């Protein structure tokens, strides 16, 4: 993950990525909820797990790519009107943007894969922060 993204922005850019992750997760859930009677149970459960992984920021680039695929495949299961086609297009573009941007600081990916500073100086010689 660290090789994919050299930084995990914090502050307002990190908050923007958090909001983008939440928006994509909500779009996946709403897309599945609208077709809940037409889809198999395993597809419903996997979509909820996909949304949960997006929400917490776990393996964000790969999961966002799966969200792009889900947004493109799920509408083919039923009739899509003009308004819902626009919604699906926007949800797909948001998921693709999230895939390209990365998870941000406020994610599980940042906790697991971000760079860390290791201070090897003895404790008595360290400068206070």
Describe this structure in words.
It is a single chain. The protein has helices at 12-34, 41-56, 60-73, 82-101, 108-113. It has 129 residues and is mostly helical. Helix 1 (12-34) packs antiparallel against helix 2 (41-56). The radius of gyration is 18 Å and the shape is elongated. The mean pLDDT is 84.
List the helices and strands and how they pair.
Blueprint: H1 12-34, H2 41-56, H3 60-73, H4 82-101, H5 108-113
Helix pairs in contact: 1-2, 1-3, 1-4, 2-3, 3-4
Relevant terms:
elongated, about 130 residues, 5 helices, mainly alpha
Query: What's the number of structural domains?
Result: 1
Backbone shape: elongated
How far apart are the termini? 28 Å
Radius of gyration: 18 Å
What is the count of helical runs? 5
The whole-number mean of residue pLDDT values reads: 84
- Please give the number of β-strands: 0
Percent of residues in β-strands: under 5%
Helix-strand topology string: HHHHH
Query: Largest beta sheet, briefly?
Result: none
Structural class: mainly alpha
Helix content: 55-70%
Poorly predicted segments? none
Briefly, what is this?
The chain contains 5 helices and no strands.
């Amino acid at each position: 993950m660290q090789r994919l993204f050299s930084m995990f922005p914090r502050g307002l850019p990190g908050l923007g990525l958090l909001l983008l992750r939440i928006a994509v997760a909500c779009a996946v859930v709403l897309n599945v909820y609208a077709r809940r009677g037409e889809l198999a149970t395993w597809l419903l459960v996997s979509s909820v797990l996909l949304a949960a992984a997006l929400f917490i920021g776990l393996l964000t680039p790969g999961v966002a790519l799966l969200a792009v695929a889900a947004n493109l495949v799920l509408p083919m299961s039923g009739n899509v009107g003009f308004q819902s086609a626009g919604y699906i297009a926007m949800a797909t573009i948001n998921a693709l943007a999230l895939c390209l941007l990365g998870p941000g600081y406020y994610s599980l990916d940042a906790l697991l894969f971000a760079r860390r500073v290791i201070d090897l100086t003895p404790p008595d010689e360290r400068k206070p922060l």
